[in-house]
Amino acid sequence: MTPNAASGPSRRKFLASTAVATAAVAGGMPLLSACGGGSDGGSRDGTTSGKDAKKLLPTYVAGNVVTPDIPSKNGSAVGFTSKLDLAGLKTSVPKKLGKGGKVTVMSPFWGSPPKEDNAYYKAMNDLIGVDVVWQNQDGNTYDQKLGAVLASSEVPDVVVVPGWNMTGRIPSAIISKFADLGPYLSGDAVKDFPNLAAVPTDAWQRSIFGGKLRGLPMPSSYVSGIVPLYRQDIFEKEGYEVPRSCDEFMALAKEATNAKAKRWACLDMKWTAFNAFGVLSGNEKSLGWNQVDGKLIYRAETDEYLEALEWTRKLFAAGVVHPDAKLGKSNAADPGPKFAAGEFLIYNQDTSQWWSRTAEQATQNPEFKIWGMDFFGHDGGEPTLWAQNPASIFAFVNKNASESVIRDVLAVANVTAAPYGTKEYMATNYGVEGTHYTVKDGVPTKTDQGNIDVMNAYVMVASPAATIAHPDFPEVAKGQVEWQQRMGAFTKKPTFYGMQVTEPNRYTNLSNDFEQLEDDIIRGRKKVADMQQAVSDWRSQGGDKLRDWYKKLLDENGTAAS
Question: Where in the cell is it found (predicted)?
Answer without folding.
Answer: Cell envelope
